[in-house]
Amino acid sequence: MADPTPDANRGAWNSKLGFILAASGSAIGLGNIVFFASNAYQYGGGAFYLPYFIALFVMGIPIMILEFTVGTMTGRSIPLALGKLAGKKGEFVGWWSLASALTITMYYITILGWALAMLVGSFGSLFEPGATAPFEPFLEPSEGVNSQVWFFNMIATWWPLVAVSVIWALTAILLWKGTETIEKGVRVFVPLMWVFMIGLVIHGLTLPGGTDGVAYLFTPNLDGITDIQVWQGAFAQMFFSLSLGLGTMVAYASYLPRDADNVNNSLLVSFLNCGFEYIAGIAIFAILFVYALNPAGGTLSLSFFVIPQGIAGFSELPLLVKSFGVFFFFLLVIAGLTSAVSLVEGMASALIDKLGISRARALALVMTPGVAGSLTFALPFIVDPALSGDGTLGFTLFDLVDHWAFRYSLITVGLLECLLLGWVLGAEKIRAAVNEHSKFKLPAFFDWMIKLIIPAILGFVLIGTLYEDI
Ligand code: PHE
């Protein structure tokens, strides 16, 4: 059968640097800045480190090598790539992972929209307590800390809908010419987010008492080692943080030359990602401890109430300090944007590969449900029921989707990828393909990691989560 998309039309990275920037830009996102810190806090600071570190070596890096190799071996996005390597079942797993990607993209972009709206708001008095909004605000100024009131005033305006549309438009612009435009974007945004994050770390550490938070984060604490939930949290966080299981890394690797060194690339991308995550943890914990803030109440409240309250103080602190709030939201927006772009690229390139349609059409096909979903999540009455009595976000549609995607879907895709590639294609074929071009040669043990060890761990995590849920 004729291939509908000759490789020349699919795009290719200009340089290895372009690929590393794009893949690390995908990996570094909201997951690194807020999800990691709130997980680390929830699971007791130092107690989270060891499981997380183990998750990186036992599962994160091997699965990234696997996904990069699937991309470079086939030159296709995840459904056709897994289809080529492992037959119809493989293709099915690929489409399934993209269905999860679509769901995750919807709410990921809603969060980015909120961050953008708050960014705009932090320049003026748009969402100040008492600001009038078209919808009923959910909090009286006296009910919560300032940043909460700001957030809920913001939700009650039209701003989130505008901001969500802007983020989607930016995503489309960055994807307009595929690798060419992605590369242009990441060359600016990825270095910029490192600069901003390092600025926040310096700010956090130079505040009086800032180092106490860092001590909490880095003091080894072996209590957590026996708690299965800590391990589950660490594995789920690692998957999401490294952008695995959603077709992203396969798509990005499919634009690499066939002889790329996948071991080297995986090590680079995962170390850049985890390095960023650790320093983000330092910045956030320093700020939390200085202001004696409690990040309980979930990831959303951490990013929108707690950290901004600490960093920005909003109208309570002098303008100079307030500007750090601007940096924080700007950082969220650019770090998240390069991740959102990669999520959408995974889906769009799959449609291009499968249907042989133009990029513009593929983007339209992804964006129609995507934009509708993000706007829905941003509607005030969707957020409204999320408010629990103490002003934190509670159990909602939002949390439900997040829980389903985060805890089940990604891990299931990873598990099936390992089983299909390990047993149907044969892990030794993957290893041979990797070793042909990599300086560091994978040992035969890698085969058993893919066939048995990783599936057993992921299966264990899934069953554990299911057991807790029912
Ligand atoms: N890794 C990104 C983050 O940490 C999220 C993401 C997941 C992006 C999967 C693409 C694919 O925010």
TrEMBL record:
Keyword Transmembrane in annotation: yes
Primary site of residence: membrane
Alphabetical UniProt keywords: Membrane, Transmembrane, Transmembrane helix, Transport
GO CC terms: membrane
Compartments (UniProt record): Membrane
Residue ranges crossing the lipid bilayer per the database entry: 17-37, 49-71, 92-117, 150-176, 188-210, 230-255, 267-293, 324-351, 363-383, 405-427, 448-467
InterPro entries: Na/ntran_symport, SNS_sf
Protein name according to UniProt: Sodium-dependent transporter
Gene source species: Rubricoccus marinus
Phylogenetic placement of the source organism: Bacteria, Pseudomonadati, Rhodothermota, Rhodothermia, Rhodothermales
